[in-house]
Design brief:
Elements lengths: L20 H23 L9 H8 L4 H16 L14 H11 L2 H14 L4 E8 L2 E8 L10 E7 L6 H4 L3 H12 L2 H11 L1
Antiparallel strand pairs: 1-2, 1-3
Length: about 200
């Protein structure tokens, strides 16, 4: 397979004021496009052509850093755009998720605090995650373009904490960006869809 940049599932200004059109234009059209372009170049001759994106990420982990970084970021971003929607976020979860949050994470408020903390304490570039591992929901963080699938977990929500994701709108205030993401942007229906597919 070759990597391709998909259109955003909403208009560039649809997530304002929490994520500006300028941020989405740079992040999607420039940064994500670069992962696609570089990933396609690095895929050639890698021996992984024809594999699924998830397989490429798993099999290049620890063996082909350049391909892994670009394929991992492409995978992360394909979901990242869908993990957000206009008028999203907040604590009103679909029923099946609400029950699981209570059982595994100590409820929504504890999840919110732990998820924001994961993003704030990820040193340098990386991601904050909500993932399913061994049948339980866990909050994780990974550096750079790493995805929980290389650690035996299935991500159902991720927030990009690379500076290009928030610097135009929030400057160096990463905590404010993470709060805005959880409170106003998360597409819980998509999170539920991924959760249902993973169990």
């Amino acid at each position: 397979m070759s990597f391709a940049l998909e259109d955003l599932p909403y208009a560039y200004d649809a997530l304002a004021p929490y994520m500006s059109a300028e941020t989405l234009e740079f992040h999607h059209d420039k940064h994500h496009m670069a992962y696609v372009t570089n990933g396609n170049k690095l895929l050639e001759g890698s021996g992984l052509e024809g594999k699924s994106l998830e397989e490429i990420v798993k099999e290049s982990y620890g063996t082909n850093a350049g391909l892994f970084n670009n394929a991992g970021q492409h995978l992360n971003h394909l979901h990242f755009w869908k993990w957000m929607k206009p008028n999203g976020g907040g604590s009103s979860l679909p029923g099946v998720l609400a029950k699981k949050f209570d059982e595994d994470l100590g409820g929504f408020d504890k999840f919110r605090a732990d998820f924001i903390n994961a993003g704030v304490t990820q040193f340098g570039s990386g991601w904050a995650w909500l993932a399913l591992k061994d049948g339980k929901l866990v909050v994780m963080k990974t550096p750079n373009g790493e995805n929980p699938i290389v650690h035996g977990a299935t991500p159902i929500l991720g927030c990009d904490v690379w500076e290009h994701s928030y610097y135009i709108d929030y400057r160096n205030a990463r905590p404010k960006y993470l709060e805005a993401f959880v409170d106003n942007l998360i597409n819980w229906e998509y999170v539920e869809e991924l959760y249902s597919a993973a169990v």
